[in-house]
Structure formats: structure tokens, C-alpha cells
Amino acid sequence: MTWIDLEGAVNVRDLGGLPTVDGGSTVPGRLLRSENLQELSPADIARLVKEIGVTTVVDLRTTGELEVEGPAPLDAVPAVRHVHRPVLKELGNASEAAAEALLITKLERDRARYPDDITTGHYLGYLEERPDQVTGALRDIATADGAVIVHCAAGKDRTGVIVALALTAAEVEPDAIVADYAATGDRIEAILDRLRRSRTYAKDLSERPVQAHLPRAETMQAFLEQLDVRYGGLPRWLATNGFADDEFSLLRDKLREP
């Protein structure tokens, strides 16, 4: 895992070089992760597209987030394909009161789903409530011509889960998957500083302390364990949700050294 320092994003890293369970490693320049990409500079775009070879952006934000945030600089690059895969349940045109009620209900479901860690329960909700978007994001990674950059708002939760699933398919050591997830904590204050400049996220961030946003290794450990306990492992969950064996092999092979 290698940090990529950009002018307009602070939580970008290349997921190459991670150890696999059979002694291999992941390939650099195939899968990147990031927070939102609204502030990329021309130099950032040149580095991502021309140097690293990014050809696909997988955006995990909701439709509402996209509408409020508006176009991002990479949207103007014809060579880059953009795919929208909202892994959170969409609220549509719900009123503010209705949206708040739905959010409370969602939190209750997350807590009931995994009482020991509500965030793990939240992550499992992506699999149970938005399986088509999760499998779609993994399919986008597998079929991209070049490097893929996956992002949401902070690059922590939604991005963390999709990346963890892709790395699990590549048979990366679970400890390495957890360590990559937790690495976002190294830059959490810089991430929050960026998001506070956005009218989409500023209010929510002001209501919670920095510590509340830190990723916990235990959360991802529990999520990976529950993949096996609840669904019989990632391959079985994917097959149950329409992800074919040849697609799984394509995803695995794309991310691993031969």
C-alpha cells in the first residue's frame, strides 16, 4: 500500500504490494482508493490519468451527494469512465422529517444486525440492502481497462468495504486488509478539514468529535469474520447475488501478481 500525495485529496493510496495468503502480492497501479475528488488540481489529474493510468472512477456516494457537490474535475476527462454505485439506501425526495425518521430506523437496524459494533452492522447493511451496487462496483473493478479509483466522501466506510471485498477476492492477508482500512486514521484530521469546506458534509462533521470518525481495526476484523459466519465466505455471497465464477476469477487475477 502506497500513499499518493495530491494537491486536492489527502486520503489516496495505491493498493499494490499487499501480501496474499499464498505468498504473492497485489499489483500496483490497478486499484486505488480515495475520499471525494471534488478539489483535484490539473497536476493531480495528470498524475492520476497520465502517470498512474486511471481509466475508471467508481463513485459510491448517494445521488443526493452528487447533486449537491456537482461535477468533479475528472468528469471533464473523456478518457475516464465514471460509474455511480451508491451502496447506501437512497432517500429520494423524502422530507427532512421523513429522512430523519428513516435514518433512526436505519441505525436501529444496524445495531440489531451486529450489536457488538454498530459500524460493522452498518457495513453488513451494504451487503443486505444494496447487493446489486456492491457487486456492480466489484464488476467495475474487474473489467476496467486500466487503474480504478474507488471513492466516497471520506474514503473510509463505503470505500473501505468495497476495497476490503476486492482485496478479499484477491486473497490478500486479512491482517493487511484491516491495516489498510485503519490507515485512513493517519490522515483523518486532514480529511475532515477538507470535508468541512463542503456544504454537504460540514454540518454533520461539526456535530461529532474527531475521535468518532476514526476507523477501528476491530470493526473491519468483525466485518471480515461475518462474511464467513453469515454468508459462507465472499465467493458464496457473490455467487448468490449474481456474480459469476468467471467474473470472480477476473477480479482476482486483475489485482494479483501472476
Q: Class in CATH? A: Alpha Beta
Percent helix, as a range, is: 40-55%
| Strand proportion | 5-15%
Q: Distance between termini?
A: 18 Å
How many domain regions? 1
* Shape assignment: globular
Regions with little confidence, pLDDT below 50 for 5+ residues:
94-99
CATH superfamily annotation: Protein tyrosine phosphatase superfamily
**Number of discrete helical segments:** 12
Give me the secondary-structure category. Answer: alpha/beta
Question: What is the chain-wise order of helices and strands?
Answer: EEEHEHEHHHEHHHHHHH
Strand order of the largest sheet: 1-2-3-6-4-5
The CATH architecture assignment turns out to be: Alpha-Beta Complex
- Largest beta sheet, briefly? 6 strands, mixed
Radius of gyration: 17 Å
The count of β-strands is 6
Here the CATH topology equals Protein-Tyrosine Phosphatase, Chain A
Average of pLDDT: 93
Name the features:
alpha/beta; 258 residues; Protein-Tyrosine Phosphatase, Chain A; single chain
Concise synopsis of the structure shown:
The chain has 258 residues and is an alpha/beta fold. The protein has a single domain, classed as Alpha-Beta Complex (Protein-Tyrosine Phosphatase, Chain A), CATH 3.90.190.10. It is built from twelve helices and six strands.
Explain what this protein looks like in three dimensions.
It is a single chain. The protein has 258 residues and is an alpha/beta fold. It has a single domain (2-95, 124-253), classed as Protein tyrosine phosphatase superfamily (Protein-Tyrosine Phosphatase, Chain A, Alpha-Beta Complex). It is 50% helix and 9% strand. The protein has 12 helices and 6 strands. Helix 2 (63-69) links the parallel strand 4 and strand 5. Helix 3 (96-113) crosses helix 4 (118-129), helix 5 (131-143) packs across helix 12 and helix 6 runs antiparallel to helix 7. It is globular and about 45 Å long. 36% of the residues are buried. Mean pLDDT is 93; it is low at 94-99.
